[in-house]
Amino acid sequence: MRKKIKILISVFSLYFLFWIFSPAQDTTSIVDKIESERIPNWEGIGTISLGFETSSFKPIDFQERWWVSFASDSIAKIYYKYAGEPKSSSPNDYIKFRKPVTFYVTGDVSKSGHFGHMGFYSRKITISKITEPPKALIK
Q1: Does residue 99 belong to any structural domain of this protein?
Q2: Which of left, alpha, beta for 72 (phi over 0: left; psi -120 to 50: alpha)?
Q3: What DSSP string runs through 30-95?
Q4: What range does the domain containing 47 cover?
Q5: Per-residue pLDDT of the chain (139 residues; tens, 9 = 90+)
């Protein structure tokens, strides 16, 4: 009987030591990581919309809108080329919007937070590379 108790205690001790010294498992889901971390050099497709109190990027893979800025004027000019001149959408002439255009972009995405006009955007993307949209996406 004593021998069985010693064996059980030894097995339990080994199990306990293994449990204590084993590497911790990361139980954070991919979605949680994406929501909490900065994403450098993110690449994807999304729609850019600029206008009165609006500077929006809507990635097709996320259910959120990001405040958008451009790393340089030459990158912004690609959007302006396809979006055309701002057009008024109300009786007030100063409230104007450009046409939303979908692009493949590369940019640095911030951690989750409050960005842009009145903090309504969940992230900010600074676009460093933008490719012309596929012809099928140009309306």
Answers
A1: yes
A2: beta
A3: HHHHHHHS-EEEEEEEEEEEEETTEEEEEETTSSS-EEEEESSHHHHHHHHHHH-S-EE-SSSTT-
A4: 38-137
A5: 666 665 646 545 545 445 445 554 444 444 455 556 888 889 999 999 988 888 899 998 888 999 999 999 999 999 989 988 877 777 777 778 788 899 999 999 999 999 988 988 999 999 999 997 666 655 5
Looking at the structure of the chain, the number of domains it has is: 1
Maximum CA extent, the chain? 93
3-class secondary-structure state, position 117: helix
Alpha-carbon gap, residue 4 to 1, rounded angstroms: 5
Structure tokens at 47: 């729609």
